[in-house]
Amino acid sequence: MRTFNKLLISFLILITFLFCISCKKGGDDSEQAKFYFKIGRNFHEMKDYERAIYNLTEAIELEPDFAEAYLYRGAAYSDVNEYDEAISDFTKAIEINPDYAEAYFFRGCVYVAEINFTQACNDFRKSYQLGNKDAHEYIKRLCK
User: Which of 123, 79, 144 is CA-nearest to residue 135?
Assistant: First the structure.
């Protein structure tokens, strides 16, 4: 059943992709960026990180200030243990949107993976301050 679901999702993504390619010719960059973002996000959810990174990169190239695309690409990089790239993407998302609680939170998680608890705690505190309640548990466990 799980294989069938993956095949069905892949098929639907392919159909969506082909349909949108045919109707997006000449479309504006913002709409194309959103399209690539959705495809990349779907690949990320399917744990196909290579394709997720590719599509999210396409979205970023079309719309360089697309903070959410940087967040998801950073998450994909983190999932394949490419921590420097992940930190770079989370940092870029924060530069674009300084109040992006999730970007601070995920960057903090990468710092934990790198055993950099000082930076992780700084990011968890900022994320919590911005309203991310999940960060509180990390602060209680890791931070003094």
Answer: 123
